[in-house]
User: Which sequence fits this backbone?
């Protein structure tokens, strides 16, 4: 089975711009979660999508949004980028039920200048 | 919120045994994960505990005490490749989403 894929792997943006990140989960998984990872804050949960619906949401401002498509692929959008948004954005795929063991993608390293 | 506490950094010698502790607030507890993350890579699943006791998987074991809000990850016969960050993550109540601790950076030296 192919693993979780994320594109792009690296991205450099300027303050005020917006960015869209993409995640393709493991085949058959219906849940996709997004996390922001920084050295100071660790792994912080952004939101989770299950069967095209946002099922859980973390404590991030409305500039962070996402969606999930019928094939379970998910996108995350950040508008009006700030310097503090520089981070590794990780996507995690899971069945969305039961144990819900999560499988992480390689991440997208976003740098905001 | 859910406080999950782990030591920031630990060092150990190749071939030795190391125990990484994790404590959490017990309210609404519904399962605990351990993940390993090498520098520049994604976290990978190591173990899952929902009942009290020790789960052994090769060189790695994970222990849980729900009443104490305490878990540990035990790594035996340490190898250099075990140098990584170890993340403790706790599931709360009906949520499927675990909350992650900040991780413990383990450095294994010869």
Assistant:
């Amino acid at each position: 089975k192919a693993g979780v894929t994320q594109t792009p792997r690296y991205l450099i943006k300027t303050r005020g711009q917006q960015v869209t990140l993409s995640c393709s989960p493991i085949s058959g998984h219906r849940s996709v979660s997004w996390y922001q990872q920084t050295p100071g804050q660790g792994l912080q949960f952004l939101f989770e999508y299950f069967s095209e619906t946002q099922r859980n949401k973390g404590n991030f401002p409305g500039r962070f949004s996402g969606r999930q498509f019928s094939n379970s692929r998910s996108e995350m959008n950040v508008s009006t980028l700030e310097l503090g948004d520089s981070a590794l954005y990780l996507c995690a795929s899971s069945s969305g039920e039961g144990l819900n063991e999560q499988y992480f993608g390689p991440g997208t390293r976003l740098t905001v200048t | 919120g859910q406080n999950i506490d782990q030591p920031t950094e630990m060092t150990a010698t190749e071939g030795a045994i190391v125990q990484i502790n994790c404590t959490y607030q017990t309210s609404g507890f519904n399962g605990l994960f351990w993940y390993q993350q090498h520098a520049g890579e994604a976290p990978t699943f190591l173990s899952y505990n929902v009942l009290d006791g020790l789960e052994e998987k090769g060189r790695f074991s994970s222990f849980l005490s729900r009443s104490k809000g305490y878990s540990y990850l035990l790594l035996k016969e340490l190898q250099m490749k075990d140098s990584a960050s170890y993340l403790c993550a706790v599931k709360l109540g009906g949520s499927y989403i675990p909350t992650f601790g900040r991780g413990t950076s383990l450095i294994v030296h010869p």
